[in-house]
Every structure is written in structure tokens, then in C-alpha cells.
Amino acid sequence: MTVGAEPVRGGRHMTPGERRRACCGERRLSSRLRAVLVLAGGVILVTGVVGLVGKAADFSRLLDAFNTADWAWLALCAPGVIAAYCGYIAAYRDAARVDDGPELPLRVAGSVVTVGFGAFVVGSAAGALALDYWALHRAGASRREAVRRVLGLNTMQWLALGVAAALAGAASLAGAGRAPAAMSLAWLAAVPLCIAAAAFLTSPRLAPRLTAEPRKPARSRGLTAFAGWTKFLLRETLADALGGVLYVRRLLTSPRRYPSGVLGYPVYWGGQMLCLYGGLRAFGVHIGLASLVLAFATGYVATSLPLPAGGTGGIEAAMTYALHAVGVALAPALLGVLAYRLFTFWLPIVPAVALLPTLRHLGERLDELRRTARPEEAPAPA
Prior knowledge:
Helices cover 73% and strands 2% of the residues. The chain is mostly helical.
């Protein structure tokens, strides 16, 4: 209870330590409650997707595909998930240290990636990016540098998937797949254009000017102030985005120095697709590599939307219909995607959520890395 502004326990005023512990306890309870509510909402969304897609596919066909499943194929899912985690952690460490960035030990990087998955589960993609920013900033990167490195990590991840989808689109158009021409052409046109634009805007001639931190506008009022701050925020956003792309450019142009940064994300996506392939084969689906890559990439775009609970429901629906577009029947496509999500989303929740309470210890470890790398600086910010 409280008396005035002072918390009271047992008829006496609480000590500062007791107040901190009580506050932390309330925050932990609130976080756990929020996680439970978000996950419960995710289960409801998945159930709704199964109901809607199952109705479109005919529940009898869904049941037949389930009853005739060859469960041995699910054995591919576990090594796929392990390969995905290993590739992501390796890429994360190398990408973080580009241009004298933080050197993260393997155990610390693994904890950040795993806890980041927990943030992705109970929040959205933005939650995982916020965790990456927190970790890099605590490890020694400045605020602006941490923002740009996080954007670079995300850009490198999607670049690897985009290149794979573009190559699959070209193969499909050449007759190696059954994907619709529109799907293939979309990836084949968009990815090279994005790469060309990024290469041009981060060229040595333009990069110093476009990535420079803009000046804050002079103090003013009314529409002048609104226009000045709008221009400043747009220029700052562009500078940070291109700064992230510049990190990617430096990583890709130094493959011998950052081999894991170049190869890690392809391994990550390969592991994810191996897991999906195992889920599909369990329900009798025969699918070529080009069609699998195109359907996976097209469906995975749903994760870029700010959806809660890791995009649960949206990913299942998007990936199922993307598979249907490349010739897979709806019933086995839905079951295969559900198996894939079981291994890549629901089962990894256990270690991810288990590590969430260790954030304080992880922060202390990151602070230690910062002090070791830059002993002349003040203690890391909270």
C-alpha cells in the first residue's frame, strides 16, 4: 500500500531496495502476463487460419492427408532448425564487428539471438530489432552506430533471401519450377533494382554526403518548425538506412575478413527451407527447389509486417497460399506449414522465454565487453 507518495509495507515505509524489488517484481509479472496473452492470441489466430483454410481445402482432405502422413520426414526439421540457428549466430557475430564494431563472444551472441527470438514471439519484428539495438549499444556501439548496425543486420538477412528468390524466379521461368510468372518476375525485377540502387547510393562519391548526420533545425514556431523537423527526420531516416546498407557493402566486399557474415544468412535460410521441405514431404508433397524457395520467400514477407506474436496466423496463411500458387494442394500445404511453424516457432519458445529473465545478467556481460574494448570510456548507459 502507499501513504501519500511513499510506499508502505507492514505499517512502515519501504526501503529503496524494497521499492526496487517490488517494482521489478511488478514488471516481471506484467511481462509474463503480456507474453501469455500474446501467445494465447497467437493460438487463437492459428486456430482461425486452420478453420478458414481448412474449410476452403475441405476438412475431409485435411484429415486424409493427416492420417496418411509419413512422420519420418519430420526428422529433417530438427537439423534444419539447428542449422538455421548456427548460421544466424555466426552471421550476427561477423556483421556486428564490421568496421571495428563490438566483438561478441559466441555464448553472448547466442544468448542475444535466442532472447531476440523471445522478443519476436511476444512482440513483433520491431521487438527483435530493439533487442539487437540494446545489445550492440551496451556492447560499445554509439546510439547512431547501433541503429545503423541493426538496420545493416536486417538488410543482410533479407538480401540473402531476396537473392535466393530472384535466382529461383529465373530458374522457374527457364522451366525448372511451376511458379506463376508474376511471382517469378516480381522477385527477378525487384531484387536487382534494389541492389543497384543500394550500390549507387552507397558509392564512395555519394555515401559520405548521404550518410552524414543532418543538423537539427533552428528553433522556430508554427509551420516553419513543422516543415524543418519533418525534413530533418526524413534526412535522418535516410542517412541511417543508407548507413546500414553501407555496413552490408563493406561486409560483402571483404568476404575473407567476414566469411561468416557472408555465408551465415544463406545457411540460416537454407535451414529454414529444409524444415519446411521436411514438413511438406511428411504430408506427401513433392516440390522442386525453385518452387520451394519462391513460395517460402513470398510467404515469409508477412514477417516484415508489424504483426504481434511473431506474425502468427498471417505467416501460416501467406505461406500456405504461396505454396498453393506453385501447385501444392491446400490441405497438405497447410499441414506442412503448420509442421514447419511447430519446429521454427512454437518449440523454440521454450528456450527463448526461459532466457528472457537473464536479460540483466546479459546486460552486465555486454557492459563488461564494452569496458574491455574501450577502458577509457565511462560505464555503459542503461
